[in-house]
Design brief:
about 250 residues, mainly alpha, about 80% helix
Length: about 250
């Protein structure tokens, strides 16, 4: 298993997907934050301007990580590298399990770095502008911890979805449409059903805005955090088991 972990980390280091992930995360967080700190009036920065940005950023980064997980898995099928992994480790479930673990760690580390960089930039921007800015945006350490955990979960979920559906463009487009539009509509129209849907469940774990706006306004019908955490693990397990089951019966050459 150690050799499998090293192989997965080597793939991440030697491809442009991981580098692209960090570039996109930095772009959606630091670039608009820097513009915000430089351009807006001081009194607006001292009120709720930064906290509003942090809420938006906490929605975008997990979606980027979701796409990263999908690309990380579908690229294996697209370029045929999954064949070599299965030849070296014929027990395909081990390959899949290690991918889930490694990508979960990558998602957690990425979110942790993003949070740290945003905090540093806000502190530096406030010092330069001569204003007192609440760098936490009203969030507690527990809120940040949950967002970081959800980042790992949603990255893993993306890997599982990519392994199940394999078609890169279709999977990415379909998942984003579902997360940003379809699921929000269901949550608004049928909250009793919507509370159990995957991205609403992830949202309930972190208590952040992860589904683009709709479900964030419907909070009374969300699952409790412990319930949502368990259900999120169930979603990941079901999709992963289905992906492994299909991969055992599917030609990858």
């Amino acid at each position: 298993m150690i050799a499998l972990a090293r192989a997965e980390l080597l793939k991440l280091r030697s491809t442009r997907t991981a580098l692209g992930l960090f570039i996109v995360v930095l772009f959606v967080t630091l670039v608009p934050l820097t513009v915000l700190l430089i351009a807006v009036p001081k009194d607006w920065l001292e009120t709720d301007g930064v906290s509003g940005f942090l809420s938006t950023a906490s929605a975008l980064v997990p979606l980027v990580l979701l796409v990263f997980g999908i690309l990380g898995m579908t690229n294996e099928y697209r370029h045929g590298t999954i064949t070599y992994s299965y030849l070296v480790t014929p027990r395909r479930w081990q390959v899949m399990a290690m991918k889930l673990v490694v990508y979960a760690i990558v998602g957690i580390v990425t979110m942790l770095i993003a949070v740290a960089l945003v905090y540093v930039v806000i502190r530096a921007g406030g010092a330069i502008r001569g204003v007192q800015i609440d760098a936490s945006g009203g969030a507690t350490l527990g809120d940040y911890a949950r967002q970081i955990v959800v980042a790992g979960l949603i990255t893993t979920f993306g890997v599982a979805l990519g392994a199940l559906f394999r078609a890169q463009v279709v999977t990415v487009a379909g998942v984003l449409i579902w997360a940003l539009a379809v699921e929000n509509i269901i949550v608004v129209l049928k909250p009793a059903i919507g509370r159990w849907l995957p991205f609403t469940v992830f949202n309930a774990v972190s208590a952040g805005q992860m589904t683009g706006g709709g479900s964030g306004s419907v909070t009374t019908d969300l699952l409790t955090r412990p319930q949502a955490f368990v259900v999120s693990l169930v979603y990941i397990a079901i999709v992963s088991v289905a992906a492994i089951f299909i991969s055992l019966r599917r030609d990858v050459t």
